[in-house]
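Quick one - inputs below.
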Amino acid sequence: MPQQKLRLALFGSGRIGQVHARNLADHPDIELALISDPFIEGARTLAAQTGGRAVSDPAEVFAEPGLDGVIIASPTPTHVDLMSQAAAHGLAVLCEKPIDLDITTVLECRDNIREHQVPIMLGFNRRFDPNFKAVRDEVVAGAIGTLEQLTIISRDPAPAPRDYIEASGGIFRDMTIHDLDIARFFIPNIVEVSAVGSALFSADIKSLNDFDTTTTTLRGADGEIVTIINSRHCAYGYDQRIEAFGSTGMLTAGNVSATTVRRYDATGTEQAGPCLPFFLERYAAAYRAELDAFVQAIRAGGTCSPGFDDGVAALVLADAAAESATTGKTVSVVDALR
Amino acid sequence: MPQQKLRLALFGSGRIGQVHARNLADHPDIELALISDPFIEGARTLAAQTGGRAVSDPAEVFAEPGLDGVIIASPTPTHVDLMSQAAAHGLAVLCEKPIDLDITTVLECRDNIREHQVPIMLGFNRRFDPNFKAVRDEVVAGAIGTLEQLTIISRDPAPAPRDYIEASGGIFRDMTIHDLDIARFFIPNIVEVSAVGSALFSADIKSLNDFDTTTTTLRGADGEIVTIINSRHCAYGYDQRIEAFGSTGMLTAGNVSATTVRRYDATGTEQAGPCLPFFLERYAAAYRAELDAFVQAIRAGGTCSPGFDDGVAALVLADAAAESATTGKTVSVVDALR
Amino acid sequence: MPQQKLRLALFGSGRIGQVHARNLADHPDIELALISDPFIEGARTLAAQTGGRAVSDPAEVFAEPGLDGVIIASPTPTHVDLMSQAAAHGLAVLCEKPIDLDITTVLECRDNIREHQVPIMLGFNRRFDPNFKAVRDEVVAGAIGTLEQLTIISRDPAPAPRDYIEASGGIFRDMTIHDLDIARFFIPNIVEVSAVGSALFSADIKSLNDFDTTTTTLRGADGEIVTIINSRHCAYGYDQRIEAFGSTGMLTAGNVSATTVRRYDATGTEQAGPCLPFFLERYAAAYRAELDAFVQAIRAGGTCSPGFDDGVAALVLADAAAESATTGKTVSVVDALR
Amino acid sequence: MPQQKLRLALFGSGRIGQVHARNLADHPDIELALISDPFIEGARTLAAQTGGRAVSDPAEVFAEPGLDGVIIASPTPTHVDLMSQAAAHGLAVLCEKPIDLDITTVLECRDNIREHQVPIMLGFNRRFDPNFKAVRDEVVAGAIGTLEQLTIISRDPAPAPRDYIEASGGIFRDMTIHDLDIARFFIPNIVEVSAVGSALFSADIKSLNDFDTTTTTLRGADGEIVTIINSRHCAYGYDQRIEAFGSTGMLTAGNVSATTVRRYDATGTEQAGPCLPFFLERYAAAYRAELDAFVQAIRAGGTCSPGFDDGVAALVLADAAAESATTGKTVSVVDALR
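Output:
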């Protein structure tokens, strides 16, 4: 007998909200019940495409009977409040990163929601990328012996607008945080963080005392070294690669092109197409797999992976990276992550 | 205002029928109304997953009011009759290749259905593969100057069972026919066919006087040369590649792996995964795009690409290849394709 | 105790002669004693760079005391006479392909020189290419099970001048002959030849009733199929690739670039440099290894590989290909190669 | 008129000395006059292969009339003394890295030899690697706009013996120093150094308080960020790669395999061979090009690139990396490199 569909509500009808809305609408086990956005026109336009009732007030969501969970894809400052309310109403939560830009607020939120024991999943979608996941599965299976070095290269195609950058918490909390979570996907127990940053090409970013170009180095509890290389721009598309180096070999996951076509002409040979443009394309499969995992977590009722504590840990690492890039000192995160 | 969904029926609940049924069920513009199979259990099992009413008698399909078209994925010997009936009922047709193994029967069918002027699309799904299509689009756009040589490498992972092979019409009509259509996708006007074949590894195929290994060479009206290399087995998966060589460059479309993961160890470096297992995986996107094109053809009411005449041409070329492989002589197809 | 250097003479100071002269001069076991060319200025210029005495009359070579062997890199029409004289003088011979364009002349030459029992090596240098040789060594070692299909793609960067083409014996005897020998490197016993050809881009070649674009298909005694794809031009350099497909896998040898550099920019990713320009660069290592093998053959005194009979066989196959491309019929070479 | 050969002497008949000896012997513009090693048997064995007179006492070298220069490939502790004597005798010097492990000694040496104004070249051979050099030439030519990030991945195949490690000055001064020079090849003006290190797999290295696994980060005067990833072992061979990322694109130089052969079988596809085993193979062409550059420097009489000051700078950076890895603080090298 087929299980009843899960009834879910979505907060946020912006870029990420739209991705989730389409995946919710297409998912055979999900009924997209409501789309909530104070900008009600956004919610309505989206609902017209994907189904679900458009509402402007979150209270309407929490008043809805028979809901199983919510996806929080609204602006970061709303995350903690929505998550807390959802937990209080016994709703499972899939929340986009970051939980909040302030670690104190995040830890308070954790205390508040702990008693409700609802499944909380953090939207670190890259863990569900089939390429990264395949590397991690093989590493866990011992395919390269002991993992010693992890290299993550992650470059956005172009800087976000000044407004976005200004509210983002800086490159480490906004962009590197994804790579920090991928680092913890492979090496959960990180003890030290170092980082250097420069503002090389974006006058906006420079004027905000932020960085557009960084290298972040982590050390795991067993001495493993993670190196994360970031840039806020990339001429050839969205550059997303990892290399896991171990005692008996290496596994890499490279960029994804739209096709397998290669070009040969007087200028050169074997030219592939550009990388996929940005995360919507590159991580399309990851977003769908993330939603599958959320459905399973609700059904199974246990803890989620990545869960709330993964969101905490990534923010702690991002804070440490920001501090290190400013002070020039390696920052221990042993106490903060205890 | 959204258009009304097209109501379609499916003939056949076997391997290919199942692919179509799932795509029909998932397509936002289609209602899968009926699944017809004399093996009614197959139709019922499939309909339970995808929706639609299971029927055993094709007459029930043709009696159904309000149908827009049919997908014919039943065994080859049923194709001509179902296509003719569908056309007589004014239904659009998407028919799996081949139309029939006998060219006379195919040409009679063409005469019979011509008056009904319904859209007829042939299931040469590879034309819709994003990789092959991208190469062809660029060739048409002049990216490699004048197309001079086309090389198609196409190997199945393992021979089909003896029963299948016996009824298949031989490797040229069953397997090479897809490559012959891809040849015509690039060079529609073929004038000559040569082929050589061997039975190297399959005792079944040898005992049927069929080939498991072939090379087929075509010449286009402007002297272009197409080379098709086939094998009925392949240790590393489903090998499907093309190379289009022109006066100013070359474009290739390579195999598809499940991920971008590469392995480095003591035995070697840069090892990618095996090719995708077989056509269901490799051409999954192609089947979906084919269905999109069928929907568009029904809506637009014009001729289909690939259409009935493409099915005729591919069979003529396959017959010529079979003849050439037996006689050792190049076969002109100018008259047959006039 | 180090062995005495071999004293060798070189016929021909043209493009290939110059390659040999430099390799002879650099080889630690060889003394380049004479360079012979009726165009004495060519011989003198070359000798000034590489050492050796320049002579215009071949008789001076055969009068030279203490010679061990000769390299024949003079025009094709001189090959048979020089080879015969060298053999009669007890000199080992390394002769550039082809022995002659006329098979009757070649067979007479074979009869003439047989009694002298000197080592005769044919200049099919590609057998010594490290990439092709590695594939062949692995195939012989069983790395891909039973060899079933061999695909050879071989394209020159640009057509030779009209004069050269006119005297060349046509594309099969001049260009394909190298690929035919590589086919026999893997599958020595060929029984059938088919070929198609077109003149697509070179008015000179067309006016000479020659082809600039061909596909040649061979069948081995065990049914193996070889496919050779040739073009007289190639926009991205000298395209030289092979694929050996067997029952348990495939081995390929790809093109060679000057460096491992890859370029990523807005037009695409992973672009390698052009192929090496032509055979002098691509087969530089092969020419040196060929000379090593010649030295070893002289020292060991046995038969050479590739030897005279390999030159005969390649010419027989080239003649058969030319016949097949004209008649449209598969040509058996069983009798000719008996 | 051909120039007179340069008469050179070699100090050291060990592994690197042997590489130089063979290249000296093969070089058309060089006469290898003497090989000096206190272990006279080593010098004699080598001289028997390459020519040159074997001597045990360096004084014999400096007493030799008509010498043009020396190559110093003896143990590190001898470098400063031999270089100083050579300079005092007016001999050009090609000295293997490092000049010395102690920066004070190096700076004194610089003061001592400055007055003699002889060409001093440092043996940072990787600058002459055709792959790295091609990337650098293109970067200088503006092919990727402004250089923003340089990533260097450099892994030895296996740790050196304990004795070697103990005398090596540690991973930064012994191994990373090559990468630090490559960093300066692209970005000469480095201002800051950070490093982290672990001893993950070598008990010897751990017991010496050295690291076997490190990440080093440099910042250039214009904010460019260099990331160097090192390991003392690598299961798939000698891993030597660079990525130069700029405002309009990226250029990479990958590993080198012995052939272009790729393997396809049931375990995967496109497998290349292992990386070349170690620096003797990988940088064979670089050593030859380095010698060419030395010859040109002697002929031209100007300064060398890389020269003495490049050796100083690399050591300063290595010292800073070692300090940073110990203290956890970013180290400024502005004063030290002024």
